[in-house]
């Protein structure tokens, strides 16, 4: 119970206060106690979320078909677009991870054979990725439209870089 003091005496300047331990906040993203982040393990652990997301996407699609209100329909369409974009990004990240793992496996095999490991530069990785993207677009038949868009984009950039002719 707290100590009773007289109200008639002035309070001393330096009085004894019970020290309270400061609460230390930890951020699990940057703390070593939480362990090391490994995307493969994370994906395996939370793979059940993919099925839940798929169900939610189907529900949103059904609601979008039934909806009559234009504002509501717009919101649902934005939500559906965001869900599909997130799904696409996740697939791309998975492909990238698989590609990196396959390259690492190849390097390990070469190292086992006694050869010196060779690691690709970032620029070379980018070139390989671009070549794969082109081959995929060619397979799907969307290469021409992609190249047209790229040409238009580059033309706009070139126009912007040129000094204005007045």
From TrEMBL:
InterPro entries xrefs: RRP36
Segments of skewed composition (Basic residues): 148-166
Signal peptide: none
GO cellular component annotations of the record: 90S preribosome; nucleolus
Subcellular location: Nucleus, Nucleolus
Entry annotated with the keyword Zinc: no
Keyword Transmembrane helix: no
Region span, Disordered: 145-166
Coiled-coil region(s): 53-140
Database matches in Pfam families: RRP36 (PF06102)
Alphabetical GO biological process terms: maturation of SSU-rRNA from tricistronic rRNA transcript (SSU-rRNA, 5.8S rRNA, LSU-rRNA)
The entry's keywords: Coiled coil, Nucleus, Ribonucleoprotein, Ribosome biogenesis, rRNA processing
Main location: nucleus
Family: Belongs to the RRP36 family.
Its biological purpose: Component of the 90S pre-ribosome involved in the maturation of rRNAs. Required for early cleavages of the pre-RNAs in the 40S ribosomal subunit maturation pathway.
Entry-linked PANTHER family: RIBOSOMAL RNA PROCESSING PROTEIN 36 HOMOLOG
Binding partners and assembly: Associates with 90S and pre-40S pre-ribosomal particles.
Name recorded for this polypeptide: rRNA biogenesis protein RRP36
Organism for this UniProt entry: Chaetura pelagica (Chimney swift)
Organism lineage string: Eukaryota, Metazoa, Chordata, Craniata, Vertebrata
């Amino acid at each position: 119970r707290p100590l009773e003091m007289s109200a008639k005496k002035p309070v001393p300047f330096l009085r004894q206060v019970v020290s309270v331990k400061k609460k230390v906040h930890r951020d699990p993203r940057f703390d070593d106690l939480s362990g090391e982040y490994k995307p493969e393990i994370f994906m395996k652990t939370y793979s059940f979320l993919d099925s839940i997301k798929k169900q939610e996407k189907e529900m949103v699609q059904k609601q979008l078909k039934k909806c009559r209100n234009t504002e509501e329909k717009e919101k649902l369409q934005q939500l559906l677009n965001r869900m599909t974009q997130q799904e696409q990004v996740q697939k791309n990240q998975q492909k990238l991870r698989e590609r990196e793992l396959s390259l690492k496996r190849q390097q390990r095999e070469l190292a086992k054979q006694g050869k010196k490991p060779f690691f690709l530069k970032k620029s070379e990785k980018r070139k390989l990725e671009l070549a794969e993207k082109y081959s995929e677009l060619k397979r799907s038949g969307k290469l021409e439209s992609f190249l047209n868009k790229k040409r238009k984009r580059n033309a706009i950039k070139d126009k912007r870089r040129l000094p204005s002719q007045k």
